[in-house]
Specification:
By secondary structure, the chain is mainly alpha-helical. The protein has two domains: 301 residues, Up-down Bundle (Growth Hormone, Chain: A); 57 residues. Helices cover 75% and strands 0% of the residues. α7 runs parallel beside α13, α10 packs parallel to α12 and α11 packs antiparallel against α16.
Length: 402
């Protein structure tokens, strides 16, 4: 994902990059919805193993296409890999995600495993901060955070990932558990979100390319996302399907207006040599936000469900041997109505709490978007600007060392 966007950054000026990133966002939206839709179909009609098998031929096709069409560089450069920095960063991020997951669900924040994970976070962070300034080619140069655009968009990306990707997971849960939809049907009901994402992503890309400005697009996007999440926080078993579809379309449109714009803003201010690492770092914060958001919101969901179903635990063990912890949409659908109603209400209330927290977090991203610098997009790519500088220096009789 990073390499494709960095490649576009090398070939296309920031001014024209909007329409390309819009296409990227649209493809991402199609894939994000097609995946769950196919997964639901395979789970219902074949076996869950096919959700993995289907990726094998797709990966083979992508590899063949890239090998045949992607231009090769005429020169080979020997790079210095930052092994220590990469190891510290991997340990840091893994420990953060695991601590968020374990501390909120299967353990307490004061339990020994969580304390060990938190100590790992502190040690890995200290090692990372000590290693990066001395690395020849750091995996994430700390100098990037000196750029206001990179710093703010990284925080926005983290918050957006936390709120949106952490909460979208629960839309199919609501549709299957509370409203009794099949996995395939719940996948089909995600199509409006895909439609909103595609239209918003392509449309915003065209606007950016024509105007050369981008700041208000993520502002509008986070506003739509916050509104969609706030509306989703009022879901109930009686909520009409059309209203759920409208709310999901708003959420999808918000995603389409935000995701690619953050990458464009970062690439517009990144130095030529840092284009790739700036792109990857920006996307990293969004993905980590999504991972931590999924864990944190999952902890909220699990806590609310377990608390609500605790008085029904003995009755639930008559349906599922493991009680509330082993409930599935299929088991809930087969329950007697007297038991199914309080169970689905507990799930609906827990999902509402998840979306409410996500809406509050999304509101933070809306405020942060107003702080993002509004810098006009350049009409030249990095390489062209660099070459122009070299030619100007040579014309002035200067010696410029590369």
């Amino acid at each position: 994902m990073v390499t494709t966007q960095a490649t576009v950054g090398d070939l296309v000026s920031p001014r024209e990059r909007g329409r390309y990133m819009g296409i990227f966002g649209a493809v991402f939206g199609v894939a994000s919805i097609a995946g769950p839709l196919l997964g639901g179909f395979f789970t219902t009609h074949l076996t869950w193993r096919w959700i993995f098998f289907i990726n094998v031929p797709l990966g083979v096709i992508a590899t063949v296409v890239l090998a045949a069409t992607l231009p090769a560089s005429g020169t080979r450069v020997r790079h210095a890999i930052d092994y220590v920095g990469a190891a510290c960063l991997a340990a840091l991020l893994s420990a953060v995600v695991l601590a968020s997951d374990v501390g909120g669900t299967s353990g307490r924040w004061t339990s020994a495993p969580v304390l060990v994970l938190l100590a790992t976070v502190a040690a890995a962070l200290a090692g990372f901060l000590a290693t990066e300034p001395r690395a020849k080619e750091p995996v994430m140069p700390l100098r990037l955070f000196g750029d206001e655009t990179f710093a703010i968009t990284s925080v926005i990306g983290f918050v957006v990932g936390f709120a949106m990707f952490g909460s979208i997971t629960y839309v199919p849960v609501f549709l299957q558990v509370v409203q009794g939809a099949t996995p395939t049907h719940s996948g089909l009901l995600l199509v409006p979100m895909m439609a909103g994402l595609i239209v918003a992503s392509i449309g915003s890309g065209q606007i950016i390319s024509r105007t050369g400005r981008y700041k208000m697009i993520p502002v509008i996007g986070t506003a739509l996302s916050t509104l969609g999440l706030a509306m989703l926080s009022r879901l109930a078993g009686s909520t009409p399907t059309w209203l759920v579809l409208v709310e999901m379309m708003l959420l999808g449109a918000g995603l389409g207006l935000v995701m690619q714009v953050l990458v464009i803003a970062v690439q517009n201010t990144a130095p030529p040599g840092d284009l790739g690492v700036a792109t990857s770092s920006s996307m990293l914060f969004r993905l980590i936000g999504g991972s931590i958001g999924t864990a944190a919101l999952g902890a909220i969901f699990a806590g609310r469900v377990h608390a609500a179903l605790a008085p029904l635990e003995s009755a639930l063990r008559g349906v599922a041997s493991g009680g509330a912890a082993t409930l599935s949409p299929q088991l809930i659908a087969r329950m007697p109505e007297a038991l199914r109603v309080p169970v689905t209400r507990a799930f609906a209330d827990a999902i509402d709490a998840v979306f409410l927290v996500a809406a509050i977090v999304s509101l933070v991203s809306f405020v942060l978007c107003w702080l993002m610098p509004a810098k006009p997009l350049r009409d030249t790519v990095h390489a062209s600007a660099r070459q122009a500088g070299l030619e100007a220096g040579e014309a002035a009789g200067m010696v410029i060392e590369d």
